[in-house]
Amino acid sequence: MITGAHAILYSRDAERDRAFLRDVLGLPNVDAGHGWLIFGLPPSEIAVHPSDGDERHELYFLTEDIKAFTAAMAERGVACSAPRDMRWGILAEVTLPSGGTIGVYQPRHPRP
Fold it and tell me: Using one digit for the tens of pLDDT, what is the confidence trace for 4-38?
């Protein structure tokens, strides 16, 4: 059966975004060859949301303390949006070196 999941981030500057995931977020990784890093993720969850239009997929990181997370990113010179209070949690977006963003949120919903 299912033994894991593999998520893909498409980037305009993959080298810098890989370095960010490795050096700033501290994700464990292995070199799959020629500097192509594959990152380990903490325990994860998946949800299916309804869509009336084109299907799309999103990736969010979870944190237990969004204020501490955004403060730590600011200390490292990483831009984050101000945390926003959502019905399901408190959300901030982290700006990657490529200019893309990844959502990070402190969930309010039950965790599996």
Answer: 888 989 999 999 999 999 999 999 999 999 888 99
> For residue 62, what are its two tokens?
């979870």
Whole-number Å distance between alpha carbons of 81 and 53? 27
With a cut of 80, say whether residue 83 has pLDDT above it.
yes
Strands 60-62 and 37-39: unpaired
Coil/strand/helix, residue 93? strand
d(CA 37, CA 26): 13
CATH number at residue 95: 3.10.180.10
DSSP conformation letters of 27-67: --EEE-STT-EEE---S--------SSS-----EEE-S-HH
Looking at the structure of the chain, the number of domains it has is: 1
d(CA 108, CA 112): 12
Tell me if 75 is assigned to some domain. Answer: yes
Phi–psi pair at 69, nearest 5 degrees: -65, -50
